[in-house]
TrEMBL record:
GO MF, one annotated term: acetyl-CoA carboxylase activity
Organism lineage string: Bacteria, Bacillati, Actinomycetota, Actinomycetes, Streptosporangiales
Name of protein: Acyl-CoA carboxylase subunit epsilon
Organism superkingdom: Bacteria
InterPro entries noted in UniProt: ACC_epsilon (IPR032716)
Segments of this protein annotated with the region Disordered: 50-70
Short name of any one Pfam family annotated for the protein: ACC_epsilon
UniProt source species: Acrocarpospora macrocephala
């Protein structure tokens, strides 16, 4: 299996310890696959479409008020 270079140091002379620290920092900053999937599918969550304790009223400005997040 061939190895692909995903990280290239273009300036300086980094030690193996510095490269390892950089990889650890980048890995920690990257969301896990499960977190990314949850964030991407949040729009399908049926709870989003519920009233969340607010009552709906007819009248002027009702559409605007229904979309407002207090």
């Amino acid at each position: 299996m061939s190895q692909l270079n995903h990280l290239k140091i273009v300036r300086g002379d980094a030690s193996p310890e510095e490269i390892a620290a950089l990889i650890v920092a980048l890995t920690a900053a990257t969301p896990s696959h499960a977190e990314a999937v949850r964030a991407g599918e949040a729009w399908r969550d049926p709870v989003r479409s519920m009233r969340q304790g607010r009552s709906w009223r007819a009248g002027p400005g009702a559409w605007r008020a229904s979309a407002r997040r207090d």
